[in-house]
Amino acid sequence: MDRIQINNDWKDEKHLELLNNATNSLAELGVLSGAEVESIKSAIKLETDAETHTS
């Protein structure tokens, strides 16, 4: 699977939280596979970590 990249417009804390919540909901509904969830969560974590280091 290709690495998920988050659009620059979505890299702020509120959008990352929204992406995380949406990922959880779609996983619960069975729309996303485990691999897709892990890929998205990894991208969110990378952006969260990057935001923490630049703040």
Question: What does the secondary structure layout of this molecule look like, with pairings?
Answer:
Blueprint (H helix, E strand, L loop, with lengths): L12 H16 L5 H21 L1
Helix pairs in contact: 1-2
- Estimate the mean pLDDT confidence: 92
Shape: globular
How do the SSEs run, as a string of H and E?
Answer: HH
Q: Could you tell me the strand content as a percent range?
A: under 5%
The description of the largest β-sheet is:
none
Uncertain segments: none
CA radius of gyration is 11 Å
DSSP strand count: 0
Secondary structural class = mainly alpha
Share of residues in helices: 55-70%
Distance between the termini: 31 Å
Describe this structure as you would to a colleague.
The chain is an all-alpha fold. Helix content is 67%, strand content 0%. Helix 1 runs antiparallel to helix 2. The longest helix is centred in the last third of the chain and has 21 residues. The N and C termini lie far apart (31 Å).
Briefly summarize what is shown:
This protein has 55 residues and is mostly helical. Helix content is 67%, strand content 0%. The mean pLDDT is 92.
Task: Supply the key terms.
globular, 55 residues, single chain
